[in-house]
Every structure is written in structure tokens, then in C-alpha cells.
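Incident log, support desk, overnight shift.

02:14 A customer reports that sequence design results differ from what the structure should imply. Their input is reproduced verbatim below. On-call engineer (initials T.W.) acknowledged and began investigating.
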């Protein structure tokens, strides 16, 4: 029994090291900058968030979702204009190739925050985590603003 317990403790340490190394690798290759979320008018329980995502790694990064504790549902969407009509649809997989930069911006790719637990006020900061295909996640602070942020703040 002692041998099993020692082996289990060793296995947990190996798993922890692998998980930390994996999260560290994502932190070294993914950069989130100019991150902001639109402030909400009173009573509105949905908004969008924007940022620039840079993959400085040697392998593609595939984002399969997003999460935030301030929203009941969070996902990546894309707005498209077709025949002067804007449509919005969910993006199941957002691939950022090695060395590529993707901009999440109004009128294009963005993160939808739905069923907000409370309204968002200018000056607040919220955390949004990007969920990757390899089961990693990368969290970053997003400044709440009415119409974007002026500074180039990186996380």
C-alpha cells in the first residue's frame, strides 16, 4: 500500500509538471494585447470583447472557446456583412498560425459575453480565458470601455 501511495504521489507530481509546462508554453507563445470589453448600458446583459492575439510560437494555436466568470455564456463570434446586412455566427475553431496576428474587432471576430451576472462599467477590468484545442487555457484582463482603449496594454 505504501508503494502504491508513493507511486500515486509521484504520478501526481509528473502530471502537475506537465500541466504547468504546457500552460507556461502557451503563455510564452500567445500574447493578448489591446484587450477591452464594451461597457453595457443599464439593464443590458450582453456585450462583446476585443483584442489582438499574437502567436509567436512555431506551431498553430487553435482556440475552441472562451470563458469568463462574469458571464453565463461566452463564445467567439464573427460578424459578416452580406448584401448590406450584418449577420453574426459562432466560430467553433479560430486557428492562429505560427507568427500570425489575429485582431478581434467590432464588425469582425469578437468574443461574445452573454447572460452577464451584472452590468459592465467603464474603468472595470474583467478576466476572459481563451480555451485551446490542446486543453490549455490562457486568461487575460480586459479593460471595460465605451468605445475601445487608447493604450497598447499587453498581458
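02:41 Re-run completed on a clean worker. Output:
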Amino acid at each position: 500500500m505504501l508503494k502504491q501511495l508513493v507511486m500515486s504521489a509521484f504520478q501526481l507530481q509528473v502530471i502537475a509538471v506537465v500541466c504547468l509546462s504546457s500552460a507556461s508554453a502557451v503563455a510564452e507563445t500567445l500574447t493578448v494585447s489591446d484587450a477591452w470589453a464594451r461597457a453595457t448600458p443599464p439593464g443590458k446583459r450582453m456585450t462583446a470583447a476585443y483584442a489582438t492575439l499574437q502567436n509567436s510560437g512555431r506551431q498553430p494555436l487553435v482556440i475552441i472557446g472562451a470563458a469568463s466568470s462574469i458571464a453565463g455564456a461566452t463564445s467567439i463570434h464573427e460578424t459578416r456583412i452580406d448584401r448590406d446586412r450584418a449577420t453574426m455566427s459562432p466560430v467553433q475553431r479560430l486557428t492562429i498560425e505560427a507568427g500570425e496576428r489575429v485582431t478581434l474587432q467590432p464588425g469582425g471576430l469578437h468574443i461574445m459575453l452573454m447572460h452577464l451576472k451584472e452590468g459592465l462599467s467603464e474603468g472595470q477590468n474583467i478576466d476572459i480565458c481563451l480555451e485551446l484545442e490542446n486543453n490549455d487555457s490562457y486568461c487575460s484582463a480586459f479593460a471595460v470601455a465605451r468605445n475601445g482603449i487608447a493604450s497598447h496594454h499587453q498581458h
